[in-house]
């Protein structure tokens, strides 16, 4: 029956997914699910509660949260009713949820969902317009840096379980802002200069300096002071000492407050035995507006470095965001895993097999002589018994399939059940082990006869053996 | 740090999720995941391969697939570039995927994802504008009704595992179209009358007759013939016999073809031992345009009937859809579970506890005399050991928490680890079992001393015991 108002795709217009999006299928998806399950296990180990929010939010909820990046937000068409936009991250929806539930003063929530950015896609580097984020956040008024330390611990645990070597770059917004102030950056320019400095992981100092001086009009000598301050990284211990040894910096209240935090954090990370996973990098700035304290970015290290995937997790403290909704202010700290980038790394390790192979345990086929009628009802009956037992079973959905077709379809399936008219009449079926190297031998082997009624048990034995 | 271009939500505008959407949190989500995991297990048991498609598609991909319902499609704003719309179901994206991959001649795919309809929401009945669908489809040219029968088997297996009593209403588009033709419905009116007839599960015959005659201008005697034909349901066996006993109906080619299918289906459902789960209901029509053969709808039966949730799963055969993309035509049959409605039923069974309780195994607290300093580093150290062992552990993220606060926070956690200055000095910690009725007794019990180094083992014993 043809749809009433059928309107086939114009010939010539090619069939595709929208720009910057892709389909996921088969083994790719199972690998991605493995990442999700690993993260979820750790999140719950740390008291995490799952949250799921709508894929679009009221436009005003997203307004004024992302600074320059707001232009990348996808809007829904005005079809009457409310103005909505696709979520840009999972942090703002979480803050909106917190602001809506004023009874919730503290919570640890995790959310794994897709987010949307009208960005220039770079599929090879795992950068898409629709991509997954995997967030864990601790909300609540606690003592300084204790939740922050636990978030870093969560990062280490997840990548440990995934078997990925990583390094966590950390910095502190208050220290950064203080450095800029001492260097002589006008306060209204701090965010601009900050985002320029943030490029130091990809661009050379000369390039960044040029951007600050020529594009952003920063005096050359100020830019150079900024350069000497931010182009330093090392262990928490060393950088904290270095900063403390510079009176003009310590004289700045913002730097002083940040340093106190970092001192606490170091002791907590030692107690958590992960202080060696952390690098204190004064050039780390992070783009988003809403960070207010500790910020961090995770990069692959060792043999986990595959091409230019960039940071594979990131986050920070955002104490001001929830309050922006005019309700209770709740201090928060959180992290977000770049699932697609992590996938890119893990996938590069796997040998690529067919992506459409399922994991059937048993293939049921029928062979026979000239009076052979395909035994469809018998094949269905056997399959139903196996399904009842929770065993993955398949058969060729044809009344009288060719033997060759059935053999072809059963490739890679460990166990075959072979039905024949005479065997069935004698209350028997053939069981055949399809595993092993020698295809020729497998082909010749006609399988062993087992009583029809003990089939399920026999199959179980073969699969477990 | 206040965001540079902060724009708080206007006072007065209330904070909410968009109309027809909701947040999911805590136990609700875990219950929903249980539904997903159950369905996935069955899908894979039947050879299913997972597919994930973008949340939006090129607008032309959705065009002309949904008939009247197309007006409910959400469009993305034209922000330059391609015109896109949010997916309306998972069937059309699957057909688009098949049409794109001309190498794939046959596949069994499942997809669990949200779909979007600008419909009148009815939250109480689990009807939202953003809701989950959970689809399993068998694509490929096989012998008639064999895949169709397996799809019905999948439905039965999933609801069996979920512990829900159901009944599957089935009908055949060709039989229905034939009945209309014999009754004298003009072919251009078939879809209109079809959707009127589809309301017979909710509305009385009088109401439906009125709609057909007065609104859709069908002659009264034609409407009455339609009525006598479609207001019949029963076992497959009975209805097939009934139709075969009416020469004027059997003379119609469309009815004849449909009846042949239904006869085959009955034999296959018998072999699958699920024929008793099926009711042949001639009034079932299904709204969507693209169905071409068998159609079905699952309704809760027995004690699974909770309020007016409507159908909890539905589907049918759509052999024409993939061909609409001007590529290879591939016959398909599939089903979609109404996850939110199934959730509503299962949730009504659960006693509602707090939705924000996590499942922490161990709570680590510190008590002490006047020189008590909170032992934060020791609490962190113990927690880290437990985390390393994969145990869910929490502690109060404060340097010097009040004992009362810790006791409060540990409510419902099975095991408590209690740290004290003196015990730690002696290389010991206290372990306390928090399970049991008598709160008073639990409060008095100070726990038993165990050596610090055997803590993890002792905790494991307590949790397993």
TrEMBL record, chains A, B:
EC assignment: 6.1.1.21
Location of the Aminoacyl-transfer RNA synthetases class-II family profile domain: 20-451
Top-level taxon of origin: Eukaryota
Segments crossing the lipid bilayer: none
Catalytic reaction equation(s): tRNA(His) + L-histidine + ATP = L-histidyl-tRNA(His) + AMP + diphosphate + H(+)
Keyword entries, A-Z: Aminoacyl-tRNA synthetase, ATP-binding, Ligase, Nucleotide-binding, Protein biosynthesis
Region annotation (Disordered) ranges: 1-21
InterPro entries referenced in this protein's UniProt entry, alphabetically: aa-tRNA-synth_II (IPR006195), aa-tRNA-synth_II/BPL/LPL (IPR045864), Anticodon-bd (IPR004154), Anticodon-bd_dom_sf (IPR036621), His-tRNA-ligase (IPR015807), HisRS-like_core (IPR041715), HisRS/HisZ (IPR004516), HisRS_anticodon (IPR033656)
Pfam families reported for this sequence: HGTP_anticodon, tRNA-synt_His
Statement: the UniProt record of this protein carries the keyword NADP: no
Entry keyword annotation includes Nucleotide-binding: yes
Record family assignment: Belongs to the class-II aminoacyl-tRNA synthetase family.
NCBIfam families hit by this protein: hisS (TIGR00442)
Protein name, per record: histidine--tRNA ligase
Source species of the chain: Phialemonium thermophilum
Organism classification: Eukaryota, Fungi, Dikarya, Ascomycota, Pezizomycotina
